[in-house]
Write the structure tokens for this entry.
Amino acid sequence: MRLTYFLNFEQNKSIRTNMQHIVIIGNGIAGITTARHIRKNGSDDAITVISAETDYFFSRTALMYIYMGHMKYDNIKPYEDWFWTKNKIDLKRAFVEKVDVRHKKLLLHGGEQLAYDQLVLATGSKPNKLGWPGQNLKAVQGLYSYQDLESMEHYSKDLKKAVIVGGGLIGIEMAEMFLSRNIPVTFLIREDSFWSNVLPQEESKMISRHMHEHHIDLRTSTELKEIVGDANGRVRAVITTEGDEIPCEFVGLTVGVSPNIAFIKDSEIETNRGILVDPYLATNIEGVYAAGDCAEFRQPNGERKPIEQVWYTGRMMGEALGRTLAGKKTAYRPGHWFNSAKFLDIEYQTYGWVFPDPKEHEADFYWEHKSGKVSLRLRWDKNTEKLTGVNNFGMRLRHHAFDKWLKDGRTVSYVLAHFRDALFDPEFFKRHEQAIVDQFNLENNTHIQLKKKSWQRILALVS
Amino acid sequence: MSQPDPSLSIANPEPKDTDALQKLGLALAGLGTLVLFLSWGNLPIPHTLGLILAIGGILGGISLYSYRFYMKQPPGIKNNGVWFKSLINRGVLGWIVGVILTGFYVLLYWYPEMIGFKPEGNEGLVAMFDPLSQFFKSTSASQWFVYGTLYTLAIVSLGVKFLFKYRHSTYQIKRTLSVMAAQLLMAYLIPEILAGLNYNDVTTQEGEYLGYYNTDLKNTWPLDYDFFYDWQLDAMQEEAYQPMGVLFLIIGIAMFLLVTPILTYYVGKRWYCSWVCGCGGLAETAGDPFRHLSSKKLSAWKLERWLIHGVMVFVFIMTAATVYGYFWNTGEVFGLNIYSTFQQPYGFLIGATFSGVIGVGFYPMLGNRVWCRFGCPMAGYMGIIQRFKSRFRITTNGGQCISCGNCSTYCEQGIDVRWYAQRGQNIVRASCVGCGVCSSVCPRGVLNLENGPEDKRYDMPPIIIGNDSIQIDV
């Protein structure tokens, strides 16, 4: 008993002497997942997570719900505050001004220095500003950080009208936020319908219709030319490329985000738009890594963009990097693409790739419910018949099913025949699979028969 | 598009203006409530007219208001401004309503004469319900008849509101229709009609009282903790009440011995807690706006497990002593007086104080499921089945969770649903009442209530899917 105690003690001591200090800059999903997975994989190294934004990790995707009154800041923190002490993850509120990779130390705002052995850059993004006149006026902003939310709240007082520029996910979120406070929204988008650079036409039209239903003044094929300020330096109107002047007291700029990497620009860490990394998320400097929105892959993964700015990819990079830093070298190898969103009341999920237009070798099928709020799109390879992607709106589908079917190279007929295994709508919801298969059979001259839902098959998908 | 609310900020930003019909609805409901208070104050309102105004005003007013309020908006989740409102965010209004509710329960249980219950002739609030009681069973109203009527009115009228609010979800619609019907029929109409037909609560012409037994089918032991009390068992065997009395005895025993474990095995405890139960019915309808107030802390979960199982053990011991006392007619067990040692403390502490005063009175402070989560022995009993031997689970949809926290926030049972969802794990928890709101409020289609094989119910994948970086060693 006593001897074992001493042996363990000795071992612990030897680990201690090798203990490293891992510093993670950024407490978003990528940085925090990295920290958690270093611990999960058994490492005893000291971990410090630095953030200038908030004391604790919160779900960035949920910021909108604070403004809308669905949740409070405390509700969007995925872990209680004791979690970090319990897992020996030190949280430090500070702003990193410079990274000195030669001496392995960080220079913090206020003059403090912090030494590291391994460094993870997970600093996320910044909203884009594309050089419009007046873009730095008061009440002109994007929505990314907690501070952006505070600023939005601040400028919402006495706000009679808001203009949002740029038709993506953050744009429609911002519109939904203002609507929740009864503030009219005019939405300027460059494309001819909402998010049509990502969504196929029918889905894009569906969301555009739904925006009208919610009284959003959607101006398609319209771009921002200039933002005009008042005497106090606050926006008072925008002018479109068509020359229309729209009075407003707030402008939301939601034309995408860019890696937040200004503070390392004059370090020796190699950057392009983002921080350049190899498949192990390692930068050109030994012991310095990058993950999440700010990382740019030298070699993109398949159809994925070199910079992935999605919650899920930030998490997956963190999972891989956490293992590497715990001594189990692991490359970031994302599986089949998936994503989701909610456009006002319409939920959206996607598995595999569905581009706005089918690629040359792809066939396409689209079904839409007569309500105009539920739809399904399938894409498959014309030659092999293998499914390549699915878009579902107003209908929930099982991630496990599509991940496995895509991995196993299942044909579109197989997928439709087994569609009931993939349905994830709540009990008693109206089912559409028969209508979908009927239309598919009609259009493609096939005789696909729906199989009954099988729990045996569903459980086999999970393993 | 309507004009913006000038008082924006944190005040009370209603999504739409209140139109004339909504105002009419509010006025009707307000009038109905006012009549209740005025009659309590012994204002001489004709009883029948007062009753019609009160019940009709509240039911009609709430239905009209919520119809207009929700039907003006597209179907979908309606949680805008939840954390800004005083009534449902522990603000001034919340405290006022909490004190009124709590006070009402205290009077109801211990000072019924203060709301007008007088055996020699009712006054005030209770007297106003005399015509309705006379209509059902030719006796004047008791405080319990008043309570039962108002309770049913709350579930039905605020159930209508819930139906409009969640009209996009067939699960929520069916579940709510079920609790409304269960309360209206099983807890209210059938018992009153049975009493009217002289199957219960009868006083003979000679003035002999034949006894009372519980005729609310769904009020099952151990929630109905006095099911085995001697007065109840005697009444069920009373000759004049047959065949109903014995039928209720047999059904009552079958309910907890067979129906409960079997249904809980197949669909989870939700079949009871959020589809049938009266406490659950009130929590899901009148209590729905308070659901986000439940504590999600780990410490609250720890407290919950001690409390609910403590109450459950208490009711088991109390019932064992009661049954022993009934058959051996001792009045004592191990030298302890059964009434004063077991029944009286349980009735006072648990039956009245916990389930009534705290359970409902504290809705605006602690959320709508305090009793169901921390106290109810029926929930404790079914929880054990649900946790260890059931086909029910909330399935997590692979890697789609964004950790937003809507599920945890709106879980009335205080389950930190997100804790499981964000690691791709199914949710199997004793306390889940299967209301389905986590699944409804999830913006990414992550959660689904399902009944499936027990095998892999606890599925905890070694990695969250979608990431092939990590290979699983099988």
Notes: DSSP finds 19 helices and four strands in chain B. The CA atoms of residues 186 and 217 of chain B lie 6 Å apart. The longest strand of chain B covers residues 392-396. Chain B touches chain A through 69 residues (CB under 8 Å).
